Amino acid sequence: MESSGNLVRVLTRLGRVSGTILALAVSLALAACSSSTTTPTTPTSSSTQMTDPSASASPAASATPSGSATPKPTIVPSTNTDAITVTGEFGKTPTVTVPSPWAIDTSQARVLIPGTGPELTATSMVEINYHGVNGRSGQVFDESFSSGQTATFPLTGVITGFATTLKGQKVGSRVLIAITGPDGYDQAGGSPDAGIEVGDTLIFVVDIISATLPGPSGASVTPAAGLPTVTGDLNKPVVTVDSKATPPTTLVVQPLITGTGRKLGANDGIQVNYAEVAWSTGKVVKQTYGYQPVTGTLDATVPGWKDGLVGQTVGSRVLLVVPAAQAYPGGNRKIGVKEGETMVYVIDILFSQAGA
Q: Are residues 205 and 284 in the same domain?
């Protein structure tokens, strides 16, 4: 997607996440972005970095003094994680005991502390703390608790086993997951810097701190008179504009639902659903409802979003009426927006990540 006329640029990487759980190629193919038209961009989280796996990784098996390779132990894969014990509270570094060498036959999860928040979906953005142990060696190869920095990323951008075992888990949960070699790093030939060899089972204790909301949630707000109206299903709103009326000459910010999540900062990463309507025609020129939410950084959006969404809370639905100077001063041919057009937006704030 091109940056000059877009409301949302494609996310290529969220923060700096170590190669331990990140997929070989991290990219978020946003279905809602396929027509390439507008600009909230990608969370560039410098505050949510995973630690360098090499800092705690055990060395991979090397050669014996005689020069012959040390044979790998034969491990009979377990069918469950019952042999692994974990102690510690949510939010605190766990103590994990693994009867190494150990392996699992299929990737799976066991809930240690149940949460009550939203369930993770296949496309969720998630914020977690994690503690990773190699089942073969019993060594910690990567973890985030000691740094005090959580990790944030899309489940579409991590190794298969991490995504499939976290899907369906709830925010607030502590989960033990075990990932087979084929669902982990076998395809990449292992990860030598982290002491991960082909065939190694990876064990993680994951605290799920936050994730994408399924939709707006909170107290309804009665909008001011004379504004465009928003009706219909919560997941597919209908925006009605009186195109014969004179549009406002200054930015209008009207919360329709006030969420209870954190307030957005000017540099935050966000994930949203939105509909974009041209005032003069009343027609939707772009929307993500029915597709996928889009991910971006608030500071890379059109000026009307930057000015109108700062201070709004996660879970909110916000109506913005944006004069041309704060949207597309010269118009936008790609989506059929003429020069001088006032734009109307309905935006559901589903996730945020603190900016730098």
A: no
Tabulate helix, strand, coil % of the chain (nearest 5). Answer: 10, 30, 55
CB atoms within 10 A of CB 91: 11
How far is residue 336's CA from residue 123's CA, in Å, rounded to a whole number?
Answer: 29
pLDDT over 60 at 333, yes or no: yes
- β-pairing, 140-143 vs 252-258, is unpaired
Rounded-to-integer distance, Cα 39 and Cα 340, Å: 18
Residues 232 and 205 in one domain: no
Give the CATH number, domain containing residue 123. 3.10.50.40
CA distance 146 to 108: 26
Residue 14 — very low, low, confident or very high, per pLDDT cuts 50/70/90?
very low
Omega before 101 within 30 of 0, i.e. cis: yes
Question: Is the CB of residue 41 less than 8 Å from the CB of residue 297?
Answer: yes
Task: Judge contact between 227 and 254, C-beta under 8 A.
Answer: yes
